[in-house]
Design brief:
By secondary structure, this protein is α/β, with parallel strands linked by helices. The protein is about 30% helix and about 15% strand. It has helices at about 5-15, 20-25, 75, 90-95, 100-105, 150-160, 225, 270-275, 290-305, 320-335, 355-365, 375-385, 390-395, 405-410, 425-430, 435-455, 485-490, 510-525, 525-530, and strands at about 50, 110, 115, 120, 130, 135-140, 165-170, 180, 240, 310, 345, 415, 455-460, 535-540, 545-550, 560-565, 570-575, 585, 600-605, 610-615. Helix 9 (about 290-305) runs parallel beside helix 10 (about 320-335).
């Protein structure tokens, strides 16, 4: 039974890296996941994903810190003391640390966008840099701050050589902020102008005739209809600074007719898909020229580099008709390249425990999968003690809402913190502000145990395994893994260590690193934990026991998962399969035998968990 950090570490040290091999030997061949050398045959749900921002991970080449630009920080974007600017990490740095990533048990690497970004944007006094990768100007080249296309190929090849997969982070919704709307002095505060108030055929032009005469609106996606859309000034007067008229690549992206040009989204109604995301130029994805252009752009990255999947940024802010064309084209491109299990998952962000919000994008948009934001909220609520364990029951009961039902839910990438909303310890403290020290560490471990054993594809955000906590979301959750010069990062107390981010944070002996590594190897060694459906065995409206069975799809063998979210030990009878008579403990303490056919008596320590494999 894992009752404390010291006991947990003792268990990990006795199991170590040999755990996966030992478990694999004891299982029949049919119940084992595909070997690492055959990574193409693995299904999306077989993976453990590690997500990182290259600029904040490791600096492998200091000569590209300024992106080969000259001038001060507002020209180069480089200022390692500012949390909103480039810090120097790059693709060579990721290659350098692949041993560390694989040692954690990760089988797939997801990297934030690597495309060329606008170095700096924002009004005076509010500038920040494109270190995160989401302000793209050139969709065909790696940002010089991060390296070259050759470096990208070397990284993908190095990941594949280890039997791991590589996922690209892509953006379709917007580009960097280049288009200026003349009526707004500040593009960040430019209000949205609706189609009703500013129709495409708004009267203007010569003798007051309608502009874009004959254009019937974006609901008609035919090339003939969009050929009539010639004037982009229907809502605002469009201006492009002379120095940026040809900054975007491919060249067709420089034409303002391929953007909505209606001001900033309110993230409600039509503005959700047609408004600028905080002044970023919102692409007119209804236009068939745009659809084909994006298929060409991202198909080429599959063809040239053989990447294994796409995470799609801001997917819910693109019209469904675009995804209904784009996704099949990408899957076909991947199959032609010999990639049968290409994983596409969209970002459909929500702060609520509302699976309907995310599921609709698999039903209507036909996205194969989406990031499971409701999972995050449920685990934060439950593990922090803010909600009873039956909130997880409500979450999983909604799996049938996804296109493909419970089987499709196995492919949802799950996470408990990220680079936008913030890290897991910080999110827990939003609901339980007094959590700190050993208790916060134990709750963090409990959250990761849920992440790595429950349904979905567990996604670890770089730094979580080193106890990064953070003070908020966005820039406050994007700490450096290499030695940081940001004062606010270095002042933050890390969990499980006396170190700070002022030194390199690649310690494989960190208690969280070792805990995650143990759980990752248990997971990837058992089909029940990658492909097995779930049965909720016990939950309560108060903090306490959450018990789940997952069944091996090949043998039917049961894996019993036990989690205690309360601060007191729990003794409870739990229902199991009648043929589950004896149990092996893979983590924590498990009942040796069933108390009676179909029932086991379990003891779970405060904030503890157990993974029990039926014989």
């Amino acid at each position: 039974m894992i009752a404390s950090r010291s006991v947990r570490m003792a268990i990990v040290s006795t199991v170590g890296a040999a755990l996966a091999a030992a478990i694999a030997i004891s299982l029949p061949q049919a119940a084992q996941a595909a070997p690492a050398s055959d990574y193409r045959s693995r299904l999306p749900q077989d993976e453990v994903i590690y997500f990182l921002l290259p600029d904040r991970f490791e600096n492998g080449d200091p000569t590209n810190d300024r992106g080969h630009l000259s001038g001060g920080r507002l020209a180069t974007g480089f200022d390692p003391t500012d949390k909103g600017f480039y810090h120097g990490g790059d693709l060579k740095g990721v290659i350098k640390r692949l041993d560390y990533i694989q040692g954690l048990g990760a089988t797939a690497v997801w990297v934030a966008p690597i495309f060329t970004n606008k170095p700096v944007q924002g009004p005076p006094g509010r500038e920040s840099a494109g270190y995160h990768g989401y302000w793209i100007t050139d969709f065909t080249h790696v940002d010089p701050h991060l390296g070259t296309n050759a470096d990208f190929k070397a990284l993908v090849d190095a990941v594949h050589a280890r039997g791991m997969k590589f996922y690209m982070d892509i953006v379709v919704n917007h580009t960097a902020d280049v288009i200026q709307l003349a009526e707004c002095n500040n593009q960040l505060d430019c209000p949205y102008r609706s189609v009703a108030d500013y129709p495409y055929q708004l009267r203007g032009g010569v003798n007051g005739t309608p502009i874009n005469r004959g254009f019937t609106g974006e609901e008609d996606g035919s090339p003939a209809n969009f050929d009539r859309l010639r004037d982009p000034n229907y809502a605002y007067t469009v201006r492009i600074p002379p120095s940026e008229r040809n900054v975007k690549v491919p060249a067709w992206l420089n034409d303002p007719i391929y953007y909505h040009n209606r001001g900033n989204s309110t993230f409600r109604g039509e503005s959700s898909t047609m408004g600028d995301f905080s002044s970023l130029d919102d692409i007119f994805t209804e236009n068939p020229r745009v659809v084909q252009g994006m298929i060409d752009i991202y198909g080429a990255w599959i063809d040239r580099y053989g990447v294994d999947g796409f995470r799609i940024d801001t997917a819910q802010h693109v019209n469904p008709e675009f995804w209904q064309k784009f996704v099949p084209a990408m899957l076909a491109r991947a199959r032609a390249r010999g990639i049968p299990n290409f994983h596409i998952f969209g970002e459909v962000s929500t702060s609520e425990m509302d699976p309907a919000h995310t599921a609709v994008n698999t039903r209507v948009d036909k996205l194969p999968s989406v990031l499971d934001f409701p999972f995050t909220r449920a685990v934060v609520d439950v593990v922090s003690g803010a909600a009873g364990t039956d909130e997880l029951t409500r979450l999983f009961r909604a799996d049938s809402l996804y296109e493909g039902g419970e089987e499709a839910a196995l492919r949802l990438p799950t996470f408990i913190g990220n680079h936008d909303a913030g890290r897991f310890p910080m999110l827990m403290r939003m609901f339980a502000s007094k959590l700190a020290g050993e208790e916060l560490l134990e709750r963090d471990m409990l959250g990761h145990a849920m992440l790595l054993t429950l349904r979905g594809v567990p996604t670890i955000y770089s730094g979580d395994e080193q106890g990064f906590a953070g003070k908020g979301g966005d820039q406050d959750s994007r700490q450096d893994m290499f030695a940081s010069k940001v004062a606010s990062y270095n002042s933050d107390a890390l969990l499980g260590t006396n170190a700070t981010t002022a030194a390199d944070s690649f310690n494989p002996q960190h208690p969280l690193y070792r805990e995650i590594a143990q759980l990752s190897r248990i997971r990837t060694s058992h089909l029940a934990l990658t492909r097995g459906l779930q049965l909720i065995r016990y939950a309560s409206d108060k903090p306490g026991l959450f018990a789940v069975s997952r069944l091996d799809p090949a043998s039917g063998r049961e894996m019993l998962l036990l989690f205690n979210t309360s601060t007191t030990p729990i003794h409870q009878n739990v229902r199991v399969e009648t043929r589950s008579v004896e149990f092996d403990a893979l983590a924590g303490a498990c009942p040796a035998r069933a108390a009676a056919p179909g029932s086991v008596s379990v003891d779970v320590p405060a904030l503890g968990y157990a993974v029990c494999n039926a014989r």
